[in-house]
């Protein structure tokens, strides 16, 4: 069965932030909540690289391991989702996550945290598929529509890929072979405990 | 960073292991983002601003139980021309989907394109017409607004003449809108009609067309996939044209291509280069001549290409001889070894292309720069073939089309110019008597004189009347789709605004024209729809036309550009003449009928074959076009045609010319999109031929150079009788007493073009490109130090041009440059400006988009760590940047970075709404202020104009920076 | 299905969005829409439905893969 993954080809990322606004557009994510973001290292220097980051939908997700209310679940597509009705906003998952994916809206004046929000791989949540209820709590469910996350679908340079892990790994391999360089499938060892061998 | 800095760091520590060799650390420009950084009284008030208008903006989740309509339009931001697919339910734009089938963007977008749905949601759009009454914004009806504006304009016309009204159009117009507005200005009786091209690529258009015949991108974004070497000089496509990078990076990877970035700033594009060459700002010509020095020295030039197709290269050799490696290093700072390597790669690892943008053009030597760039391409034979060419990346979505259709003070649509022959041609197309048109103008002389460029409109308001070559100063300023913070010398622009008798802003947003002046009355804002709420074609940078279909009706009380122009024409009493052959439904001109009208007249640029039907078919069949060649697939309804029928698309739509993917490509038949350099400058000069020698496009029956086709030429060739009787009759009508002089570009029958094509000939002739443009200042480009230069030691050797008069105004250069001697020590830092990916142009539209605004919340200045340390400036602190004119200063955040060299500072140009430390949010009409405001860099940019086009200098001036 | 409820959700969403438009501070405080909305809910998915595979290699998905290749 296909295993969904993200793969950011950092040799292609130009930090255009299309992935970020595509996510906002598709899921109507409010100001201050960022399911996806682009991180640049060595900014302005030789060796500058950018990487688009979001929840990587890890194998044996560390967020799920630390959640005191067990709100996380992994689908047969290997997408890590969570149930906001169960989430208590404790923030443990944020500390567990190696990618800084979980986001919390601020609630009230005392810095209280609301329910956690994160990238759903455009796969909604435990409400019925593509209902207004699902959209309101989790955003779009493109996977159920037969599509892929909009961030990857709109990526300007085809740096960010999503979909069947085997297929996107083979596309990445083909690129590395063609061009003769590659920085590796970023984050894969951490998220999926494997790399793309070329 | 989008998350809180502390969180980012915490996450990053554990993240470091996964970076796999990419070292972490360093501040990026997002590091000073605030999570929810908005506040203040202005914003708090917005919540109560009711939507009281006819049509509320709505958006929301897709309701899967309702039918979904899929409508295609084109992104309204940059010139790449990305297809936008909108999902519409019940007239509401509910979703945006990737257009995988578009050969240009293949479903992709940048941050701007991925967020365009928000524009039509439009929380901060202008909702209804407004006028300023004693300093307060009041809502008025459209009828009242048009009446009052019209009466005032007619009064000014009566009192001061038609040239006292400044008409400013937009690169965001559709082709139809641009053409209509140029026509409108003609009917009003003035050539003072301009748009953003003046401030982005006017120098490219003038410079490149004076070398090769056309002043546009010769190849395409897609074609960079074929290049083995690319030089990007004075451009940052990773931010300005992100989707172009998809093609460039694919070319880089597939061909193992050399990607060389030559720029004063280590841009995000440079981060993907194989070689980065840092130059001192304002030294482009020495770099090019320095490269050519090595090329000529080592015999790397393409001798056959030069002999057959280039005039005057020997004159260039003389100038290049002065630029030995030592002099080049003294002036530019680039060491010999690096430039020699770059020169060798460019000349020998072919095909090679040169890509440029506003770093080359927004200069006092802009026209000369782009001619030097083109000469480098010609000298190395990198022209007219796949993977080569001048890949000139234009700015706005339709700046190419708006330029082509003459939103330009120097010409009527399609570069016919302003002479009597041009006016007579268009009067025939418009079916109005030439004599009637003449009496619309103050005089026949002014009818044939270029108007006042947008870079200098405020000088035309403020200068004493006797210094202007027209009856009176400018009294009214009508900006349709144009911001106010995009021209240099803003303190003087503000004085100009304050002195106007009438200011009208017609735009989806109020623009900072509404907030920067101190006006209290006689100021109107008219809500105009975006192109997503309008039908029409737009021309991408590669000359391909794409038809955009209206996604939703104009929101609120907005009207589209066509309707606005119709209402004004009706008020002025010339609607009947102007819309004689244009269908108008109610008060709404129909886009397709405007296209058909320009198809009949815009012959010279080859805008004649692109009928609305052909363009719509291309949009429908996008998947049938090849990604690299842009050709329609065999067996499809668009077989053999080039996507978007890039001009020149010769003849009538019925002739089925496929469009021209690559200009000047002699390896193809003209009927298949081949061509040669145009024979625009006669046949001979100083005893040497200006026509091509033994070079011709494939299948041409004339196997040498030939002049432009006219009736006389047809007769000499014995081809005249291949014209049909009907064609001859039309030609006789056009030609009057002298039908022999009727040329391919004025022949409304298209017969001359048809016959030329039948014989495999290019209607515009087969000439040589000119390395020596003898009609321009500095016929062979020479280096001239910027007006404000820190290198005063070089002024004596490389002075600015002499003071002169251009465009009805005094044009200073050398006398201003003399100020550098006294300023360079107290203002030691070179200030340059450029783009950010999230914002576009003056930025009001994009800074009003909450998805984009969140990503870039502060205006900033990039300053080198050494300069920051010397001034005690800490990263992220507020600083003052002091300019050298008007004691102007701006208050911005310091971004300390190696991206800029020591002695150079950079500021983005998209901000506005702050002025010299003052937050002017309260001056916008309530509810229309952009989410993010900031100082405009143009508050501290300075005097300096290109002598050919009056392009402003925004890339090199001087400043000082201090803590605030 | 749950038409009444869904309409309500939509209305609420619209309301929240108008708030969101009022600016960042307000938006973050109100924490609307996808991040936090307390939507009245129709029947939630069962445990089996929750984890069921939904990915399909549709033409749309294939087009995405194709545009990622050279």
Could you explain how this protein is built, in words?
The complex is a heterotrimer of chains A (198), B (964) and C (70). With 198 residues, chain A is α+β, with helices and mostly antiparallel strands. In chain A, 26% of the residues lie in helices and 16% in strands. Chain A has a single domain (4-192), classed as Alpha-Beta Plaits. In chain A, the strands form four sheets. Chain A has a two-stranded antiparallel ribbon. A two-stranded antiparallel ribbon of chain A has the order 2-3. In chain A, strand 6 (106-107) and strand 7 (112-113) form a beta hairpin. With 964 residues, chain B is α/β, with parallel strands linked by helices. Chain B folds into four domains: 130-191 and 399-601, Rossmann fold (3-Layer(aba) Sandwich), CATH 3.40.50; 202-392, Dimethylsulfoxide Reductase, domain 2 (3-Layer(aba) Sandwich), CATH 3.40.228; 645-770, no CATH class; 792-963, Barwin-like endoglucanases (Beta Barrel). The longest helix of chain B is centred in the N-terminal third of the chain and has 19 residues, at 142-160. Chain B is globular. By secondary structure, chain C is an all-alpha fold. Helix content of chain C is 64%, strand content 0%. Chain C contains five helices and no strands. The relative contact order of chain C is 0.12.
Question: Can you summarize this structure?
Answer:
Chain A has 198 residues and is of the alpha+beta class. Chain A contains seven helices and eight strands; from the N terminus they run βαββαββαββααβαα.
